[in-house]
Amino acid sequence: MPGPGVRPRRSAQHSDPIALHCAVMNLPRWIDSARSQMPAIRALTSTRARTIVIFIAIALCLATFGPALAGAAGFNVPDLEAFVFRTCGPFCHQAPSRTFRIAGHALPLCSRCTGMWIGITLGIAIGVMGAWKRRWSLGISAATIAFVLSGLDHLREESGRPGWPWVRFGLGLLMFLGVTLAVSFDTLASLLAGARMVKRKVTRREG
Q1: Cα 191 to Cα 71: distance, rounded to the nearest angstrom
Q2: pTM of the model
Q3: Which of these, 19, 41, 77, 164, has the minimum number of CB atoms within 10 Å of its CB?
Q4: Domain range summary for the chain, segments of one domain joined by +
C-alpha cells in the first residue's frame, strides 16, 4: 500500500489506452506542424546529399543487373552472377518462365521485380533532384493506375491466358517510379533534419 500523500502508479493496462488516445488526439496537430516546417526542411537539403543518394541508387541498380549484362556481353563472371542471383533470391521468386534472359543469361529478378527495381532507381534519381510541384499527385496517380492494371493483369493470367512479361515489367516500373517520385525528396529531407536534430542534442550534452 502506498503511504499517505503518495499517488498510486497507474498500471500499464490503464496507461497504454490513455497514451494511445492522447497520441490520436494530437495527430492532426503534429501533421500540421510537420507541414508548416517542410518548406524550411526542404530548403536545407544540400545538393551534395542528393547527389550521394542518386549515386547510391544507380550503383545498387548496376550491381543488381550488371553481372548478367556483363555475361551477356561476353565477360566470364559466373561466380558474380551466381552471387547476385542468390542475394536477390529472398526478394523475388525468380521463376525462369517469368524472368528475362539476355544472350542466355537470366536476370536476377523476374520481369515485374526488374521493372520495380529500375522504377525505384529512376524515381529516386528524378525525385531528389528538386521539390518540384505536383510530384506527389503525379507520382501517386501513376502508382495507383499501375497497381490497378497489375491486378487486372493478374486476374487475366489466373484465367489461363498467357502472361505478358513486358506488361508486368512496365507496370512494375510505373508503380514504383510513381511511389518513389512522390516521397523520395521529402524522405531524404526529413532524414537529414532528424540527423541534424540528433547532432544538436549530442553537441549540447557534450557541451
Answers
A1: 38
A2: 0.80
A3: 19
A4: 46-206
